[in-house]
Amino acid sequence: xxxxxxxxxxxxxxxxxxxxxxxxxxxxxxxxxxxxxxxxxxxxxxxxxxxxxxxxxxxxxxxxxxxxxxxxxxxxxxxxxxxxxxxxxxxxxxxxxxxxxxxxxxxxxxxxxxxxxxxxxxxxxxxxxxxxxxxxxxxxxxxxxxxxxxxxxxxxxxxxxxxxxxxxxxxxxxxxxxxxxxxxxxxxxxxxxxxxxxxxxxxxxxxxxxxxxxxxxxxxxxxxxxxxxxxxxxxxxxxxxxxxxxxxxxxxxxxxxxxxxxxxxxxxxxxxxxxxxxxxxxxxxxxx
Length: 288
Description:
By secondary structure, the protein is of the alpha/beta class. The protein has helices at residues 12-15, 17-26, 63-70, 96-110, 130-143, 160-173, 182-198, 221-226, 270-279; strands spanning 2-6, 28-32, 39-43, 49-56, 76-81, 115-122, 124-125, 150-155, 177-178, 202-205, 249-250.
């Protein structure tokens, strides 16, 4: 049986609930390897799926699908990103308060194991200096006290797509972004970890083994088990150094998110993601 990741490459709950619903009805989904173009057929039948992990910044549009097709049939949980950055950096995401409200409602309905808060990535810039992160993180952590028990963080990785998008913002808005050294990162992490602990949350690090702190397992058999599931593979599949995720299959596609976050590693240009959403065929077997 397989854990389905939906999806670290895009926001399926925010944009593709109709497509997901159709694929669940069909009982399978096609996924194309972005590197070699190979097409795989992945079963979504109850006897083949051991659980779902949904990655999102806006679960609202997905709730009817979740309640009709997933809840009560499969164990699941959300990796829910809330950073509260300025609109220049996150032009189309839910407001911080709207996102917090969604997490509180999800936790109230499905329990505190149903949502992991992601404060990810931590981006240092003129608009978001360390003082910004300390205050914003503290505010969100306090608002989510009792609703979540884990917050996943990482510092921005300057992948090619990320660097291109950040350079466009630097040129257009005159901002400066920076990648702090390990000492500065660790000091900030230690402060954020203390804040999280004060609100009943464990701070974990997503694939940054060079920094001290507990490593995140974003695809977690333990959390799915806490949501009532059994029989999960505990074999680590990690995609990068320090990744503790168990085996899963991701059903998303790159360049398909329309939220336009400037630090995104999965979308080459915001316009490309927006065009993908406009022209997407919900009846297609694959998201791509």
